[in-house]
Amino acid sequence: MMMDRTNNVLIRIKDLTHTYNPGEANQREGLRGVTADIYSGEFLAVIGANGSGKSTLARHLNALLLPGSGSVTVDGLDTSRDEHLWDIRRRVGMVFQNPDNQLVAALVEEDVVFGPENLGLDPAEIRRRVDRALAWMGLEELRHRAPHLLSGGQKQRLAVAGVLVMQPDCLVLDEPTAMLDPSGRKELMATIKRLCREEGVTVVLITHFMEEAVAADRIWIMHQGAIALEGTPREIFQQGSRLAAYNLELPGPAELAERLKRSGLELPPGILTVEELVQGLCP
Amino acid sequence: MSIIEVHELTFVYGRKTPFEVTSLQDVSMEVLEGEFLAVAGPTGSGKSTLAQHFNGLLRPTFGSVTVLGINTRDKRSAAGLWEKVGLVFQYPEVQLFGETVYEDIAFGPVNTGAGKEQVDRRVRQAMELVELDYHRFRDLSPLALSAGERRRAAIAGVLAIQPRILVLDEPTAGLDPAGRKRLLGQIKNLQRAFDCTIILVTHNMDDAARWADRIVLLDQGRLYRQGATREIFNKPEELLTIGLDLPFPSTLVHLLRGAGWSIEKTALTIDEAEALVLKARDAGFPSCSANPGHS
Amino acid sequence: MLDGITLGRYIPTGSVVHNLDPRAKIIAVMLLIISILAARQPITYMVITTFIILVIIAAKIPLTAVLRSLRLLWIVLLCGFIFQAFFTPGQALTTLGPLTITREGLLGAGEMLWRLANLITVASLLTYTTTPIKLTAGMEYLLSPLRRFKVPVHELTMMMTIALRFVPTLLEEAQIVMKAQQSRGASFTRGNLWRRAMSLVPLLVPLFAGAFRRAEELATAMEARCYRGGVNRTRMSELVVGRADQVAVTACGVLLIATVVLRFIQV
Questions:
Q1: Tally of structural domains, chain C
Q2: Which of C4, C6, C184 is closest, CB to CB, to B108?
Q3: Nearest-by-Cβ selection for A50 from B43, B148, B256
Q4: Number of domains in chain B
Q5: DSSP state at residue B178
Q6: pLDDT at residue C231, rounded to an integer
Q7: Quick one: how many helices (H) and strands (E) in chain B?
Q8: For site-directed labelling of C84, which of A115, A283, B121, C121 has its Cα 20 to 30 A away?
Q9: A107 touches C at CB < 8 Å
Q10: What's the confidence (pLDDT) of residue A7?
């Protein structure tokens, strides 16, 4: 990922601010001046404590929220222009935290059908895409199941399939693993990574799990409605002490490596995983 | 001394209907007075079903559950168990119904028949325990709270009953790391300060390792293991075969052992892992025989 | 536990019946229902039941599933049967204490039992063999003449789709909230009517709040998936009436005519 990516900007965010309930007693700043680019094909993780503005930012990427000031453009299309709305929503798909509240139909397959039917595609094309999306997410066997009988991990994969079938350029996932158990979480993370690497879909993962962010190409750390830090996982997690100021914790292995170094142990820089730590301890 | 005894418990949902499902089979375990016990297992292992037996919400199909000397099959005596065994469900914030935080938290104490002053005192104390400022929050609508505050208000609603045993089903699900640590710290404090027996139902092995004295492991409705936390994590293979995660410090020890280090006791926290590595350094590091493989 | 309800669930077997056009199936079911209600002679009972059994076989629906859907309602059936058998005046067959079973009562009860069982079977056959979306698509089409009277047909059928999806989820939630409040000492069965009604507040408030929250999140998710009402929408399964559909509707039509004719000829 060392190539010059500046020509490859998919989403451009410029001086974006957002205020909830402006002019009312419960006015609250959601975003205060965010300027950043999301590159085509990258895996970007956005981390931050609750209330740091990450979900607000995510909802600007497909025009579910519109800028208070500043702008968001998706492949050159301004999200505040009405005529681009449906084009933008097709290009930037979104998966939400609660798997139960984003599935529309009473059968797995029919839920996947929902999006393409909204696009007005012709029936044969819909059939082809639905089969492909189900296969991709490993849900073929479950196509005639009722969603409420699926596990949490399966429900979230179904939600991803429902977006994938619209052939988006970008997939935004807003804390998709928050309600999953460890195996569901692993399952979903593996598919997301594969989507990015093999299908070239740009992935924006909003999360508060550091272990998930480790797998990303790039990380934004959000704090009080702004991007406080930006960099590769290694760059970010080397700044251990600064993370604490944002109410975040280092992943376990990085934390231990840092402490051991402080006690005078010699370890290679940028340890993120337990395997790397063992390698460092047993050269 | 054991405060809950579960003897050969079998529980069948929808018995004698076409949809019969056996969700617990022949489970025998005990809960000791004043301990912090984790009931852990993968999704579908029956841990939530077991938890609902502790306050008599569910009754055994076969076998018996005795809580504080009361056999839960005895309907009449078991009816009062809710005052002694507090049960916090997963995502407890959905149960909030009061117009104000105060009214909601007072619901349990009022149901115990306590007088106004006593209810008032209990609400204050419960809010203090979960660190919700009494004066700031008492008159707010639960809907005006943040997600983390709603969770804590709901838990306070159970604490205000002042149960001797507190059962929590995945209390930290969906919270961020800071909120998670804070909540479990408060619960641990409850055990220490009030001698409350804590039962934490969870699939998060990091939480179990860090906070529990003892662990009961369930798998597919059966008792898989029970023992002191360190013993359980000292045999990582047993956890991995039923699809549970190891907490990071135990994984590290597991891999280091694989690389030829001889480590007697596993580590449960980062502090312990740090101490363990530093001790090894002072002993001049064991030679690393093999390259560790991924477990 | 509530997962176990088979009534209204789709059972995929890929049979001829499954592949019928949903509109044809809805019309055929209507015809069958009228036939069942109109039938009066043992011979028509037999013909209709035989026909339904043949459809079950053609649909490759396991007989156990059909029996299960009946089993859930056996209490209703049994009560009705007893009531009819005991309380219809006529020729006495036998007496049990103060109660007398009459010949007419027994026959009437048998008829009622037959009617209910067949109605339930026909209705569940429709849902066993038709996916919810196809069902609502069929409804939408059949109701579309109502558009002329400004009835929002698309919106109504979308509501039906979503209701089918969320009923199990909401039932599950209701059960959890109920248990949670019981764990805080709530009792839903104690006291007089007023107290009982009041005791529902801790149950109903969270349920409504939860339903609204879900509705809001669902609306956002649907918007994110480019939903904008019926505008510019297509269907993956185009509704096409084929030979089999004509045959099915004709068969049910003939059955109905035969039933009606028999009823008036052979009194």
A1: 1
A2: C184
A3: B148
A4: 1
A5: H
A6: 77
A7: 12, 10
A8: C121
A9: yes
A10: 63
